Amino acid sequence: MRILILGGTGFIGKPLCHNLATRGHELCVLSRGQKPVDLPSGARHITADRADLAAYADGNNRTGSETISEIDNFGPETVVDIYAMTAEDDLPVFEFFSRRATRYVMASSCDVYRAMGRLLGVEPGPVITGFQSETAPIREKLYPYRDLMDHSGGGNYDKIPLERACLEGFDFEGTVLRLPMIYGPGDRQHRFRDMIKHMADERPAILFPDFYANWTSTWGYIDNVAAAIALAATHEAAAGEIFNVADVNDLTQRAWAEAIAADLNWQGEIVAAPLAELPEKRAALAAGGNFNQMLQIDASKIVEKLGFQAPVDFKTAVHRMVAYELEQLGHIDPEDYNYAADDRFLAENRANIS
């Protein structure tokens, strides 16, 4: 199968390309060329900005004509879009490829679920319990990060309009993959750096706000997520479908710390305390969320319908993630980990710490 990947040189795209190559597919990656291009042997690379594709379609731009010729010469059967973020930027991209491909596979996010709106505090209502399947209610409020942060794509970021367009708005057969929080080598958010840094520094304890320590969410190891995308992109039964993707659904933050501690053989304590009692930097771990709201997604559909099996087991995934983060610790400003306040807290509360 001829597969064109939009964004195939980053955190998700690189392992996705190598996964598809091992399956014997013909690959072409379109990217801006701002990251090192490390593609499998035989894969093509087109240097272009996806935002320019619609403008290039009029044929009056020489660079654009060359880009379109490269795409058309490759003749993609399936497009895999890793970085669709806003309707304003990406619906023209959908339109461009609707005339050039029969399948369009879009990476979405589990932040489309209403439970995420409750977690962020942008939607009123009670806590939503249980695992969210693909038919669970989605957010009623669009653009949930607009008032919270400058999320990717700015204030217009939202996957919900893009999902609807991918599945219903164009001539191609769409597939939507709702991805979890992703961890592993290459993670620029360094989601578990804080825990690993404490353990590498041989701290006697890690401090968590109590409700944060007990918060549970859904995760996916990078190679497992890439394998799920690759399978959905090449499986006929995935056309027209939505799939949740995840391989870790039931670990609290405390349990994550315990798994990482086991990998590092760290013997310290995991201390959970009320938010108001903790040093400011530790309390900041739980800022900006309603951590009574869990975010757990049910990823059984992709297993049952497509036969997906995660290629990397949890213990191996944790070990690889820890090894990567240890390599990155030299880039941290030492002042970001001044433990004086933690030490005072531990000294003052030692009698109450079990």
Shape estimate? globular
CATH class placement: Alpha Beta
Q: Class by helix and strand content?
A: alpha/beta
Give me the CATH architecture, please.
3-Layer(aba) Sandwich
What is the topology, as strand order, of the major beta sheet? 3-2-1-4-5-6-10
Point out poorly predicted stretches: none
CATH superfamily: NAD(P)-binding Rossmann-like Domain
- Mean pLDDT comes to 92
Biggest β-sheet strands, sense, barrel = 7 strands, parallel
Classify the helix fraction into a percent range.
Answer: 25-40%
How many helices? The count is 14
Count of DSSP E strands? 11
Radius of gyration: 22 Å
Count of spatially separate domains: 1
Gap between N and C termini: 58 Å
Per the CATH scheme, the topology name is Rossmann fold
Order of helices and strands: EHEEHHEHEHHEEHEHEHEHEHHHH
Beta content comes to 5-15%
